[in-house]
Amino acid sequence: MKKTLLACTLMLGCTTLAHADPLSAWNDTAAKASIVQWVQNSTKQGSTTFIPKDKRYVVFDNDGTLWPEAPLTFQIQFILDEVKRQAPDHPDWKKDPLVNAVLNNDLKTVVKAGDKGLMKLLAMTHSGMTTEDFEQRVASWLANHKDARTDCRYDQLGYQPMRQLLDYLRENGFKTWIISGGGIDFMRVMSQKMYGIPPEQVVGSFALGEFSLTDNGTQIRKTMTGAFNDDAANKPVAIHLFMGHRPVAAFGNSDGDLQMLQYTAANPDYKTFGLIVHHTDATREYAYDSHPPASGKLEAALPEAKAKGWTVVDMKQDWKTVFDPAQCPVK
């Protein structure tokens, strides 16, 4: 009897080790429980809430949902760094007050320039080169620049709880997509390495490229023609255009994700899941909602989340860790 009991104890111990918590970076709160419950209900064969594998499309915002967007979105930081890098080769740029503001780290003037100024900087740093050249520029920036607050490379700053969530969903047959206001070519450089999401499952803001034959073959040159901003009401449009499926789950963090969450929640065929990451941790990351440092305002989506029963993640309370300590140790 004692031997049998000992064997059972050892077997249970082995089973526990073999089934380590896939969401170990999450605290055992209601937010985590809601995720696990929905996944279990959605994948249980014969259940009334079962979702077939070929319908398990889930969408994630990137900035503020999978990695930080404060104090600036990382792509805007890339734009500013690129202007500084290229300025010596473009003496005429120094005649431009906006460029001088960038070179002098005068962010107030840059912000005051608004969307018109941003589009100008985008044109200077995101067009006129081949797609391969742009990819190399982003890769070089990622390898050689660090976030000032954490002293970690930008591609080391994916939220560990969300990366675990992506893995957990894929292990249960879900197909994960990024639907973000960030540039599609910018995000595709790091999406596979950071999140396990291949380039073809990344949708973001874009402009039309120009194809041409060259002496060495072919090329696509980046332009600003037909620029499409994949944010707010444009997100459902982009989902329809690129995915061709209505998602069964959506994950965001701001009012710019509200329409994506609404579009997903209105799926007539399946019990859907919505989640909003609420930035409440000023010590480990940032704390904001209606007054973000730069972008990511969360105002209209928060009360709607409560009304619709979407899960609201309190970063301070619900996450054990924010960044992977093996990649970016907390100071």
Description of the molecule:
The protein has helices at residues 2-18, 30-43, 74-86, 97-103, 107-112, 114-126, 131-144, 160-171, 184-188, 191-195, 234-242, 258-265, 301-308, 315-318, and strands at 57-60, 175-183, 202-214, 217-228, 249-252, 273-278, 311-314. With 331 residues, the protein is of the alpha/beta class. The chain has a domain at 23-70 and 158-318: Rossmann fold. α3 (74-86) packs across α6.
Q: Which key features would you list for this structure?
A:
single chain; about 325 residues; Rossmann fold
Question: What general form does the structure show?
Answer: globular
Strand percent estimate: 15-25%
Ranges with pLDDT <50 over ≥5 residues? none
Q: Helicity, in percent? A: 40-55%
Main β sheet profile: 7 strands, mixed
CATH architecture of the domain at 23-70 and 158-318: 3-Layer(aba) Sandwich
How do the strands of the widest beta sheet line up side by side? 4-3-2-1-5-6-7
Please give the count of helices: 14
Could you give the distance between the termini? 52 Å
Class inferred from helices and paired strands: alpha/beta
Order of SSEs, N→C? HHEHHHHHHEHHEEHEHEHEH
The total of beta strands comes to 7
